Amino acid sequence: MAVPTRATRRLALRRGFLAEWAALLFLMLKGYRPLARRFAAAGGEIDLVMRRGRTVVFVEVKARRALDAAREAIGESKRRRFRRAARAWMARNPWCADWTLRADAVFVAPGRAPAHLVDAFPLEES
């Protein structure tokens, strides 16, 4: 596997940033309101933390050339890091302790509307 160049990494970061904005706007049109973006803690990162009613949604955004490839990009190690970051966010925001909490995913591909997968994976490890 080739080592990515600085330009390749920069392009990937830009695509990821644009995908996060697309996901944010898409979710806002569905009635979600942002609480945090790019929250990082405990060795993990959450792209978006959103609220809708009394539900806090931790969102992983994946951008790939095809939606199917984006769906396959959330592996178990990513889920573990995501869960740790979600627990850290909840510890810093105790006001939501009795709210519904869930992990969603938004998949973004060029020329396609974002795909929102509700309850993409459990927040608690099985």
Characterise this structure:
The protein is an alpha+beta fold. The protein contains three helices and five strands. A five-stranded mixed beta sheet has the order 1-2-3-4-5. Strand 2 and strand 3 form a beta hairpin. The longest helix is centred in the first third of the chain and has 24 residues, at 6-29. It is globular. It starts with 5 loop residues before the first helix and ends in a 5-residue tail after the last strand. The mean pLDDT is 89.
- Main beta sheet, described? 5 strands, mixed
The CATH topology comes to: Trna Endonuclease, Chain: A, domain 1
Give the DSSP E fraction (strand runs of 2 or more residues).
25-35%
Report the helical percentage: 25-40%
Tally of individual helices: 3
Strand order of the largest sheet: 1-2-3-4-5
